[in-house]
Write a structure and sequence with these properties.
Elements lengths: L2 H14 L6 H13 L5 H18 L1 H16 L6 H22 L1 H5 L5 H21 L11 H11 L9 H11 L4 H28 L10 H28 L3 H19 L7
Helix pairs in contact: 1-2, 1-11, 3-10, 3-11, 4-5, 5-8, 5-10, 7-9, 7-12, 8-9, 9-10, 10-11
Length: 276
């Protein structure tokens, strides 16, 4: 990979990771459109370490409170409050994507990055996001989350393994269908992403240097810079997005997803861009 590719793609990763527009889909599209080659699923996974570090920093107080409550509650039943339960919900909800991620590792690194699939997912899943925004009651705070809600959102997160779907789009949509407020669904979704993304990024480190599937290779300094850039941009993006959700709907992102997906489908149909 060239340094220009590293900078452009890591900035794009930071901007899009937390928005319901699919960071992996954007990296696949930008790689083919501007650099005529795929950055690869492993580079995407490693650069996501930066954005998840941003989540760790942004939610540091929440994470510390949840971990403390969970550890305390294990040995003192009378201390098992909402944060203790939330800790268990995050653990339970992380299991599905761990299983699916391991089972479909090769497909994620190869065939799933086909731009026909990415563009179709951008357009198709927009319908789900719009339906969640329209039908969701958006009344329940995160304190009212149940283990059934957590498992549902955990399985919804698995859809993010398909580039073009979006991790935040899938988990927030599931939360809205369950009646959660937008910000509550987003907060749980971002916290839920932390173990999955860190595990994926660390697991993908060796392959990012020497891709076994499709994708360019990157050296150590490039991966380090990509992670730092994604961290800085990602921190600003998550702070903005959570404020945005308080007063605005998800329809803004639905319109963008559809336009981008249609443009990519047209470019593919006319042969301007290669699918892989």
């Amino acid at each position: 990979m060239s340094w220009l590719q590293v900078v452009v793609l890591s900035v794009l990763q930071g901007l899009t990771e937390f928005l319901p527009i699919s960071s992996s889909g954007h990296l696949a599209i930008a790689s083919q459109l501007f650099f005529a080659d795929d950055a690869g699923a492993s580079f995407t996974a490693v650069s996501q370490l930066g954005t998840e570090a941003a989540v760790l920093l942004y939610f540091a107080r929440d994470i510390f409170r949840i971990v403390k409550a969970w550890c305390t509650g294990l040995f003192a039943a009378e201390r098992r409050d909402a944060d203790y339960r939330l800790g268990w919900y995050l653990i339970i909800a992380s299991v599905p994507i761990g299983i699916f991620g391991l089972v479909f590792t090769e497909e994620i690194r190869t065939g799933a990055r086909n731009l026909w699939l990415v563009a179709s997912a951008l357009v198709g899943f927009s319908v789900v996001i719009a339906a969640a925004e329209y039908f969701g009651r958006k009344r329940r705070p995160i304190e009212e989350l149940t283990w059934r809600d957590a498992i549902t959102m955990g399985f919804a997160q698995c859809l993010a393994l398909i580039p073009g779907v979006s991790r935040s789009g899938a988990t927030i949509s599931a939360g809205l269908f369950l009646g959660l407020k937008r910000e509550a669904a987003a907060r749980f979704g971002f916290l839920l992403a932390i173990p999955a993304v860190f595990a994926s990024g660390l697991f993908s480190l060796p392959d990012a240097f020497n891709p076994s599937g499709e994708g360019m290779s990157a050296n150590g300094p490039q991966l380090l810079v990509a992670t730092v850039i994604a961290f800085v941009v990602g921190f600003a993006a998550v702070a903005w997005f959570l404020r945005f959700l308080v007063a605005h709907s998800m329809y803004w992102f639905v319109g963008y997803r559809i336009m981008l997906g249609v443009v990519v489908l047209v470019l593919l149909s006319t042969g301007v861009v290669a699918a892989t």
